[in-house]
Amino acid sequence: FLLIFLVALFLRTYRISVLTTFGRDQGIDFQTVKQMIDERKPTLLGIQVSLAEFHQGPIYLYILIPLFVLLKFDPLAGAYTAVVMSLFTLIALYITVKKYFSRFQALWSIALFAVSPEFVREGNSPLYQHFLPFFLIIAIYVFLKLFEKKDQKRQLLWSLFLGFIVGICLEIHYLAITFALAIFIMILVKQSKRFL
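Request: output the structure for the sequence above.
Response:
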């Protein structure tokens, strides 16, 4: 595990100042984060999307804040936040696959995640959608945990947590609606089997 983790870290930080993306959207995001910190004004609205008159949720902006403060508003703070989120995703993937499948499959899963060119590129590029895999994997873990044989009180807590995490997924990117629908359908199928 440690070797794969270190390979993932190296690939995501190698020449990060050259290989990260920095476009108009990141500039707006980073300026909003700086404004939130300077004015000490939290927001419940994220950045307005370019396609329509609505805003994404603010969770992405709040995820960016700690490293922006720590690195004194260095624009690379966004890229380093993406690296941290990518490494958290790797850890969550390992834990989930190991728990519900096997250690061997978990190691293969994170090895593929660690060296996949697309995930490496996303792992150092601070965009909303690049933070989504972490929350998707957490949601899958919670979904699987929900159907373990436990008492009703725990199932209720896991259900609420699943709703919270799926809500974060939807807040990060609206295309997660397909994931939310799949989770909802799977819960309906599982529940209907329970009553048959």
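Residues 22 and 125 are 8 Å apart (CA to CA).
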